[in-house]
Design brief:
With 461 residues, the chain is an alpha/beta fold. It contains 13 helices and 21 strands.
Length: 461
C-alpha cells in the first residue's frame, strides 16, 4: 500500500493553518513554508546525538552531597546562572549557562542500547527491547515527510557520522512505514581530518548534461508512476539526486574550508568541534533537521589514550569512566560552547534550536570491573534510562534555567517527570509542525499519529 497521510487536521485547525497541499503521498509543505525558505524565520534543529548514553551525574546533574560511590570524582562549578551548576570539566559552558537550559527529569524504560535508541528516536515503545531496526519511523523521517526538501540543492534532513557508521539502522534512524524517501542524507567520515569531503557532490565537466540524458532515457523505459505517488516514487529519488549534484548549495555548505581559520579553531580541531561547525553551516544553507553523531572525538594530531572509550558507553569493562571524561568532556565543552556562541552571535538563536542528548543516562552507583583494554580494575557506570539530562539552547525558548530534578543520588525524577516525547513535542512546536493533527498510515493502513503522546515543555516556551 502506498504510504500517505490520513486526513488529520480538524476543520478548526485547518482554518487556522490555511490551505495544505495534500496528495496521495502526503503533505507537500506546511502553509507558507516554501515562500519563507532562506529567511531568518525558517525554523531548524541541530541535534547532537551522544550514543551510548552520557553519565548525567558526571555532566549536568551532579550530586556533590551523595556518597563517593555515587557522586564520582568530579565537582560541580558555578555558572552564569545561580543554582545551575555543572561539571568542572565544562568551564566554557559554565560561562554561557544563560544561553542554554537543562532538562534533568526525562526518563523511559528501555535500558538496552537498541531499545533505548528506538524509544528515543521514534517516540514509541519498540516491539522488542533490543535491536536497532525501527518498528516506527524515526522523528527525523517524520519531520522530513512533513517539511520536504524546500531549499533547492539542500536536503532538509542530514545526518553526519563516523565512517562505517552510516547504516540507517546503526542509530535506529529507519523510516519504517514512511519508506526510504524520508531517509536522511547521510555523510560518513571525520570532518576534522585533512582532505575530508562529501563524496558524490563534486561536479565533473559535462556531467550535468550526461546525467540529464541518462535520466531522460530511464524515464522513457520505466513504467509510468501514478501522479499521486511521484513525491515518494523513483522520480522523487532521481529529482533529489539531480538537484544535489547540479546545485552548489549543499557542496558549499559541507565545505568547512570556506570558514575562517579562527572560527574552525574556536570549535576545535576534532570531530566534535568540526561537526558542530558543519551543523551550523547546514542550517544556514537551508537544512531543517541536522543530526550530528558524536562518538569518538578523534583529536587531530593526538593519539587515543588507553582506557578511553569509543563512544559514551562507559561500562567499566569498556574504559575508565573518569579518565575518559578528562579526555572527552573538554572537547564536548568546546564544541557545544562554540556552537551556542555562533548561533547567538549570528542571530540564529531564535531560528535554530540546539538539542544535546543521548539515549539514556548511567547508573547512579559506580561499578568496577577489569577493563578489556587496560586489564586492570577500573570504574564505570552501566545503562540507566530512569534518569538523564538534556541540554537545549536557542529556538526562541527561555534559557538560563533547570527544568525538573532527580533524587539525591540521581536515580529517578523527583520534580517534573518528563518523557522523550515531551522533548519532541517541543521540537515540533519550534518547527511549526502541527503534530497533533498529522497521522500516517502504517503498512496495514492503520492511521498512526505523528506523536502518540507528549506536550511541549511549558517552562521553556
Amino acid at each position: 500500500m502506498t504510504t500517505r497521510y490520513c486526513p488529520g487536521p480538524s476543520r478548526r485547525r485547518f482554518l487556522q493553518l490555511g490551505s495544505m497541499a495534500v496528495t496521495g503521498s502526503g503533505l507537500t509543505a506546511l502553509p507558507g513554508q516554501a515562500g519563507r525558505l532562506g529567511q531568518d524565520s525558517d525554523p531548524a534543529v541541530i541535534f547532537l546525538w551522544l550514543p551510548g548514553g552520557p553519565p548525567h551525574q558526571d555532566t549536568y546533574d551532579m550530586k556533590p552531597n551523595a556518597p563517593i560511590e555515587y557522586r564520582g570524582l568530579f565537582n560541580p562549578i558555578k555558572t552564569t546562572v545561580p543554582g545551575l551548576d555543572i561539571c568542572e570539566l565544562f568551564p566554557m559552558q559554565a560561562k554561557r549557562a544563560h544561553r542554554f537550559s537543562l532538562i534533568r527529569s526525562i526518563s523511559h524504560r528501555f535500558s538496552d542500547h537498541g531499545g533505548g535508541h528506538k524509544k528515543f528516536m521514534t517516540g514509541r515503545d519498540p516491539l522488542s527491547p533490543v535491536g536497532f531496526v525501527n518498528d516506527y519511523p524515526a522523528v527525523g523521517s517524520m519531520i522530513s515527510k512533513v517539511i520536504g526538501d524546500a531549499t533547492p540543492g539542500m536536503p532538509s534532513y542530514v545526518v553526519q557520522t563516523d565512517g562505517g557508521r552510516t547504516g540507517i539502522d546503526t542509530f535506529s534512524l529507519g523510516s519504517a512505514y514512511l519508506g526510504p524517501s524520508t531517509h536522511p542524507f547521510t555523510v560518513g567520515g571525520d570532518p576534522s581530518t585533512p582532505g575530508f569531503q562529501v563524496r558524490n557532490l563534486e561536479k565533473r565537466q559535462g556531467s550535468n548534461l550526461k546525467l540529464r540524458e541518462r535520466l531522460e532515457l530511464l524515464d522513457s523505459i520505466s513504467s509510468p508512476t501514478p501522479v499521486l505517488n511521484r513525491q515518494s516514487g523513483p522520480e522523487a529519488f532521481r529529482a533529489k539526486a539531480l538537484d544535489l549534484v547540479s546545485n552548489s548549495t549543499a557542496r558549499v555548505a559541507f565545505d568547512l574550508g570556506n570558514e575562517p581559520e579562527k572560527v574552525r579553531e574556536a570549535y576545535g580541531w576534532h570531530a566534535y568541534g568540526q561537526r558542530a561547525l558543519m551543523a551550523r553551516r547546514l542550517v544556514e544553507a537551508g537544512a531543517r533537521f541536522v543530526t550530528m553523531v558524536l562518538e569518538s572525538p578523534n583529536v587531530v594530531g593526538k593519539s587515543w589514550p588507553k582506557g578511553v572509550l569509543y563512544n559514551w558507553d562507559s561500562h567499566a569493562v569498556n574504559g575508565h569512566i573518569f579518565d575518559d571524561a578528562r579526555w572527552r568532556f573538554p572537547l564536548l565543552d568546546q564544541a557545544v560552547s562554540a556552537l551556542i556562541d555562533d548561533l547567538y552571535d549570528r542571530g540564529l538563536d531564535k531560528r535554530v534550536l540546539l538539542v544535546v542528548t543521548g539515549e539514556f543516562g548511567r547508573t547512579p552507583k559506580v561499578e568496577h570491573s577489569v577493563g578489556s583494554q587496560t586489564k586492570v580494575m577500573q570504574p564505570g557506570r552501566d545503562h540507566w534510562p530512569q534518569a538523564m539530562s538534556v541540554l537545549v539552547s536557542g529556538g526562541g525558548l527561555k534559557m538560563g534555567q533547570v527544568v525538573g530534578s532527580t533524587t539525591s543520588k540521581a536515580e529517578t525524577p523527583k520534580d517534573r517527570p518528563l518523557v522523550p516525547n515531551d522533548l519532541w513535542a517541543t521540537v515540533m512546536r519550534h518547527l511549526d509542525i502541527p503534530y497533533r493533527d498529522i497521522n500516517f498510515l502504517d503498512h496495514s493502513g492503520r492511521p498512526m499519529p505523528m506523536l502518540p503522546d507528549g506536550e511541549p515543555i511549558r517552562e521553556l516556551i
